[in-house]
Amino acid sequence: MVVSAGCATCRFALKLVESVHRLRPRQPVEVIDLDDRGVPVPAGVIGTPTYLLGERVVWLGNPTLDELLATLDAG
User: Fold this and answer.
1) Exposed e or buried b per residue across 21-35, where buried means at least 16 C-beta atoms within 10 angstroms of its C-beta
2) Is a pLDDT exceeding 90 seen at residue 6?
3) Total-model pTM
4) What are phi and psi of 20, to 5 degrees?
5) Are 62 and 12 contacting, i.e. CB atoms less than 8 angstroms apart?
6) Do 65 and 51 meet the contact criterion of CB atoms below 8 Å apart?
7) ∠ Cα 5 45 48 (to 5°)
8) How far does Cα 6 stand from its chain's mean position?
9) CB under 8 Å, gap of 24 or more: what pairs does 59-63 form?
10) 26-73 confidence digits (pLDDT tens)
11) Is the dihedral of CA 25, 26, 27, 30 positive or negative?
């Protein structure tokens, strides 16, 4: 997931990540903060929050928790 500090909906995105960690503790989730200038912006990211599965953008904006979990479970 890609976030930035100036993004109001990114706070909700971070809560979704907390829910994934709680419900799927073995599910690897990486949060990329665009405010960290040392981190390269992944291809396809044009705004925040952006959710990627591998290198594929699966959402621009927040999914519901159920949508996110279903997508992660499907791999």
Assistant:
1) eeeeeeeeeeebebe
2) no
3) 0.89
4) -65, -45
5) yes
6) no
7) 30
8) 15
9) 61/9, 62/9, 62/12, 62/13, 62/16, 63/16
10) 999 999 999 998 889 999 999 999 999 999 999 999 999 999 999 998
11) positive
pLDDT exceeds cutoff 90 at 4: yes
Residue 57, Cα to own-chain centre: how many angstroms?
A: 10
Identify whether the C-beta of residue 27 lies closer than 8 Å to the C-beta of residue 17: no
Q: And the tokens for 41? A: 């912006």
Question: Residue 49, Cβ neighbours under 10 Å: how many?
Answer: 24
Q: Which of 69, 41, 58, 50 is nearest to 2 (CA)?
A: 50
Query: DSSP string of the chain?
Result: -EE-TT-TTHHHHHHHHHHHHHH-TTS----EETTSTTSPPPTT--SSSEEEETTEEEEES---HHHHHHHHHH-
